[in-house]
Design a protein that fits this description.
There is one protein chain. By secondary structure, the chain is an alpha+beta fold. It has a domain at 2-222: Chitinase A, domain 3 (Roll), CATH 3.10.50.40. Helix content is 15%, strand content 19%. It contains five helices and eleven strands. Strands 3, 4, 5, 6, 7, 10 and 11 form a seven-stranded antiparallel β-sheet that branches. The chain has a two-stranded antiparallel sheet with strand order 1-2. It has a two-stranded antiparallel ribbon with strand order 8-9. Strand 1 and strand 2 form a beta hairpin. The radius of gyration is 24 Å and the shape is globular. The chain binds calcium ion (CA) (4 copies).
Length: 372
Amino acid sequence: MNKFKYYFILLLAGISLVSCSKKDDDDPVVVPVNDYTVQYKADNDSIIKYLKTNYIQEVTADFDVKIAKIPAGGTQISIWDQTTYPLETRDVFNDNITYKVYYLTLRKGTGQAPMNTDRIYATYTGTLLNGTVFDSSYNIPGIWDLDGQGSRGVFVDGWKEIFPKFNIGTSNPIGSDGVQTYDNFGAGVMFLPSGLAYYASATAAIPAYSPLVFSFKLYDLTRTDHDLDGVYDYQEDINHDGYVYDFSDKVAYPSPPASLVDDTDGDGNADFIDPDDDGDGYTTRFEITKPTGATYSGLSKYYPYDPILDNPKTPNTDESEIWGIPRRPTGALTDPTKPESITNPKAFVKEDYTDLPRLRIHLDKTYPFQKN
Ligand SMILES: [Ca+2]
Ligand SMILES: [Ca+2]
Ligand SMILES: [Ca+2]
Ligand SMILES: [Ca+2]
């Protein structure tokens, strides 16, 4: 595993260097990079041809998949035409064009789905369209950060888009051999145009502009909180599509698709990277801090997004938080003879902390009341 990781990091390091020089306009670029639209059309043609001339030879009980070319005169049903694992697509906005990415769900998985910015625990095998395996984790799970940051960062943009379509599995008790195994994990195959893979960057194993096929298994995930405001990225996905995007670079993204924007205050910084989501001048951290001397119990200084249960594995500690981030209070006015105002607020009632759905106060710019 370590050896494999070492090689993979070397591979990634090489790619990042090439990518940097490619994207920096001040550096001399020896070979002009292909136009994304033109290259995508060529890649899409190649992928469709692949899907129509290859078939699923086997899916094992452990969801290892073998894909093979249909031999001359063969009667095998192509990936394109077979119906056991219906071919699915996802529109992916990248490089300011929209890619249509084909993928197969071998099994969806029963757990939660990662966001495109979460950490995943997964295995994979990468193949060129000619069937050559260029890389594999050999069924040894690795940790990958879909946000593309750091030494575990994923460089293949297609991974960030397709893994969130799958769910993690259920973990079994660690065996006597010390190995963690999973059941009910997600497993699939993605067919990526080069623009969502390594594009112009060639390596010994992967020629430039190679569409890539990845089969994979998704075992587990770790949630991330990119703006450290106490609200996980997946809880900042306000349109609930399973994805959050940073379009704050106005030059790179002059007009991102509105359907991909999760930006409560519309300031150009998506909620998952905005410390003040509703733009009311109070940070989210401040807004989710429990008042001093609050009646509402719990170990944390901050309200969780939703109430959380006690951890049964730690019987001597009660981790339960029975109050989630509240909405603007709906109880009785302090002075019922006067209208609601900063000096005459309503009281919080229990339902303000638990009702679903509710507009939590860190997303409600009418609360706390503005000081004018
Ligand atoms: Ca956050
Ligand atoms: Ca979203
Ligand atoms: Ca914002
Ligand atoms: Ca705020």
